[in-house]
Design goal:
The complex is a heterotrimer of chains A (247), B (259) and C (259). With 247 residues, chain A is mainly alpha-helical. Chain A has a single domain (45-242), classed as MetI-like (MetI-like fold, Orthogonal Bundle). Helices cover 82% and strands 0% of the residues of chain A. In chain A, helix 8 (200-210) runs antiparallel to helix 9. The relative contact order of chain A is 0.13. Chain B has one domain (56-256): MetI-like (MetI-like fold), CATH 1.10.3720.10. In chain B, helix 3 runs antiparallel to helix 4 and helix 3 crosses helix 9 (206-215). Chain C contains 9 helices and 10 strands. Chain C has helices at 49-56, 88-91, 98-102, 112-125, 141-153, 171-188, 199-205, 235-238, 240-258, and strands at residues 5-18, 21-34, 38-43, 64-69, 72-73, 81-84, 159-163, 191-196, 208-213, 218-224. In chain C, the strands form 2 sheets. Chain C has a 6-stranded mixed beta sheet with strand order 6-7-8-3-9-10, with helices on both faces. Chain C has a 4-stranded antiparallel beta sheet with strand order 2-1-4-5, covered by helices on one side. The N and C termini of chain C lie far apart (41 Å). Classes of the chains: A mainly alpha (247), B mainly alpha (259), C alpha/beta (259). Chains A and B meet through helix 1, helix 4, helix 5, helix 6 and helix 7 of A and helix 1, helix 4, helix 5, helix 8 and helix 9 of B.
């Protein structure tokens, strides 16, 4: 990756201006903290272990929710992509449910599970299943037509057709679906932590807001931003690794 | 692969059976006073009482208005900024890390930041929706503006089109498809964020209605509002599909999907 | 006692319903393809050649008539017959090495050692033994098609059904692959059913040529080719007999088109 001098400079300049604006009283936002104050607060939070604890909770929840959602989405997407009959019996229901945003389920989950990890997981899994399911189903449908003839003329068993032909051929789409699912899982985890499960980075942001601690709040905001970047980068690297054999 | 509007052409009608069966089973199996899973008939009763109480429609109006206005402003801002950034290589290089960070920042995080800076004002709702909906539009437009076929520049030159004219006749029309793709992504995002803001700040809207119902353990109300949100989402989806169809009708099919 | 006929089609026809309209694709096809012969099928586009091949190969069921392979009725892809498709890049698994592609039909049926033996033999037969570790996308079109042929050969089939396999290749690659296929035919005694729209190719390769007319596809004539084997790109194509056969096929196609 070429080093982006202009980009880095812009960020540095922005931070400097920000610092000056706050310290010099030029800005009317009463609660905007200066970058230096954010830095100090981040050190405090790191040392006390609080930052680590909240971050680990969110990461753990996201990964758990994502894995469950991916497994479900993959299984359903495979079945629906492979079998036209199954699709015809289910698709209309899916189309009706799809526009329902995951956040609308949060109050329902709260009613049933109260303020707990289950609430967070429920909301995450519901929302993240969709991208995995849709991309898997689409990917399989895309390749099924042409690879099906190959499978039949070579007289492969259905099991082999699915595992050796369809899934590897649809792998690029499936991986895209999983990446989108991870992004969705993170978003829903934060939403759930803000409103439903008093743990994790989302909860920390809101509680620091209510405690009138803007510097600490910004620390958590930035950590969330970097976590999102890191998770995405990790997934991009992993998908490149998995697809390295292809042209 | 972007989500397509109907997964595989118009789905067979018998596909609604699973949903219908689920609701029917629920209706029969759940005790009518169940705190967690009230049967669907109670949802209808709740809906009726909510609308009679006069609280439902103003809340719905507030939510939909915020969503629509926010999306409209986001289209404008995202479109203009997208063109500016896309056409200027210097701007792109300088802003790239910043844009990447903002693109990756999970939208819910914006809400507390906005509350901190702006307080619990009505304008907060609108601004947050605009910010969140703007990014997919801006990034898509910028990417497309960057990739406008250099041949078209030659065409503009050979016809001696001025800056304003070439903007109007060449650049602007070429960003309509990517703008619509960005809108496609922004719509569900805007719905979620509108609801989220209402839920966190308890500013008027469907979101705060649902939270109130949940805090008072009025589960039938919660489910009724859930169905309402689903129906509104469904209607909005269809609406935008129609709009997208109309606007993209004259563009070649390959431009209808993300690059 | 081995059947002299490896494929027998009696009154085979195919009716489809396309966009609500009934369409007859094939009508009253009667064929006897003898063991070990090289049988080519020519016709203009739309005469149903590919459909006929798919029916012989068990990939599609005829709506009337009967197809038998080695005396048994064909209802699904029969053991001992393999189809080689025109679109090699999509028929091969791009994420598998050449060797593993060739092994595809053997997996689960033979142990690893036996698989390896067959794969090596098949690759040797098409001259790709030193490309075993390469990936299809690293190879030229001609080589990829040879990999597909090797994959079919590895199964030791009694019949190879080839659907315009060289249609997407340039003239020189086509010529070298034609000779390769003739060599395999001579060495293994496998029956070949070969579809092409190239008249010269049909005469150069075949023992007999079925000319399809239509639509709907009907067998117009079956022409015997009595050219000596082994055939040679330069000498055979210059023989007066070759030119006479070529003219006969050309006339037949014209006549078939006029019906």
């Amino acid at each position: 990756m070429r080093f982006n001098l202009a980009g880095t400079l812009t960020i540095v300049v922005m931070l400097v201006l920000w610092e000056i604006a706050v310290r010099g009283g030029l800005v009317t936002f009463e609660y905007l903290p200066a970058p230096s104050a954010i830095l100090v607060a981040s050190w405090t939070l790191l040392r006390s272990g609080e930052l680590a604890a909240q971050t680990l909770h969110t990461i753990g929840a996201v990964i758990l929710g994502w894995v469950i959602a991916s497994a479900l989405g993959l299984a359903l997407g495979l079945a629906l992509g492979y079998s036209r009959t199954a699709r015809s019996w289910v698709e209309a229901s899916l189309e009706l449910l799809r526009p329902l945003p995951g956040i609308a389920f949060l109050p329902v989950a709260l009613l049933i599970f109260n303020f707990s990890l289950e609430t967070e997981l429920a909301v995450m899994v519901y929302a993240s299943v969709w991208p995995v399911l849709i991309n898997t189903m689409g990917g399989i449908m895309n390749v099924a037509t042409r690879l099906h003839d190959v499978a039949r003329t070579l007289r492969l068993t259905p099991m082999r057709t699915v595992t050796r032909l369809l899934i590897p051929a649809a792998a690029p789409s499936i991986i895209v679906g999983c990446r989108l699912g991870l992004g969705t899982a993170l978003v829903m985890a934060i939403i759930a932590e803000m409103l439903g499960n008093p743990h994790g980075l989302g909860y920390a942001v809101v509680s620091e807001l209510q405690a009138m601690q803007p510097e600490r709040m910004f620390v958590y905001v930035l950590v969330i931003g970097f976590l999102a970047l890191a998770l995405n980068a990790a997934l991009v690297a992993a998908s490149r690794l998995m697809l390295r054999n292809r042209g | 692969m972007r989500a397509r509007r109907f997964l595989t052409g118009l789905p067979r009608l018998r596909g609604v059976l699973p949903l219908v069966l689920l609701l029917a089973l629920w209706q029969v199996a759940a005790p009518s006073r169940s705190p967690y899973f009230p049967p669907p008939s109670t949802w209808w009763t709740s809906f009726e009482s909510l609308s009679r109480s006069g609280r439902l429609y103003p809340a719905l109006a507030s939510t939909v208005l915020t969503f629509a206005l926010g999306l409209a402003i986001a289209c404008l801002a995202g479109g203009v900024l997208g063109i500016l950034i896309g056409t200027s290589r210097a701007a792109r290089r300088a802003l790239e890390p910043l844009l990447e960070f903002c693109r990756g920042l999970p939208p819910p995080v914006i809400v507390p930041v906005a509350v901190l800076l702006l307080g619990y004002a009505e304008s907060l709702k609108l601004l947050v929706v605009v910010w969140v909906a703007m990014w997919p539009i801006l990034l898509n437009v910028a990417a497309a503006a960057e990739r406008v076929d250099p041949l078209l520049h030659d065409v503009a030159l050979s016809f001696r089109l001025g800056v304003l004219q070439s903007l109007r006749k060449i650049t602007l029309p070429s960003i309509v498809p990517p703008l619509m793709i960005g809108v496609r992504v922004a719509v569900p995002l805007a719905i979620i964020i509108t609801l989220l803001v209402e839920m966190i700040t308890m500013l008027p809207g469907v979101g705060s209605l649902i939270v109130t119902a949940q805090r008072n353990f009025r589960s039938a109300d919660v489910y009724a509002l859930l169905v309402l949100v689903g129906l509104v989402g469904f209607a909005l989806n269809i609406f935008f599909v129609v709009i997208e169809d109309l606007l993209l009708r004259r563009f070649p099919p390959r431009m209808h999907n993300a690059q | 006692m081995a059947d002299p006929e490896i494929f027998r089609a009696e009154g085979v026809g195919l009716d489809l319903s396309l966009q609500g309209q009934p369409r007859r694709i094939l009508e009253d096809i009667n064929l006897d393809i003898k063991r070990g012969e090289f049988f080519t099928i020519v016709g203009a586009s739309g005469t149903g050649k590919t459909t006929l091949l798919r029916i012989l190969g068990g990939l599609q069921k005829a709506t009337s008539g009967r197809v038998a392979f080695r005396g048994q009725e064909v209802v699904e892809p029969p053991e001992g017959a393999v189809v080689v498709f025109q679109d090699y890049s999509h028929a091969l698994l791009q994420w598998r090495s050449v060797a593993r592609n060739v092994a595809l039909g053997l997996e689960g049926r033979l142990d690893a050692a036996a698989q390896g033996e067959r794969v090596r033999a098949a690759l040797r037969m098409v001259g790709l033994e030193n490309k075993a570790g390469d990936y299809p996308w690293q190879l030229s079109g001609g080589m990829q098609q040879r990999v597909q042929i090797a994959r079919a050969l590895a199964l030791g089939p009694k019949a190879m059904l080839m659907d315009e396999p060289f249609g997407a290749l340039d003239a020189m690659t086509k010529a070298s692959l034609q000779d390769e296929v003739l060599r395999v035919h001579a060495e293994t005694g496998t029956t070949f059913v070969f579809i092409t729209h190239d008249i010269e190719e049909a005469v150069y390769l075949g023992d007999r040529i079925a000319v399809l007319g239509g639509p709907p596809g009907r067998i117009h004539t079956v022409i015997d080719v009595t050219l000596p084997r082994p055939r040679n790109q330069i000498e055979t194509r210059q023989m007066p007999e070759f030119l006479r056969r070529r003219l006969a096929v050309y006339d037949a196609i014209r006549a078939a088109g006029r019906q």
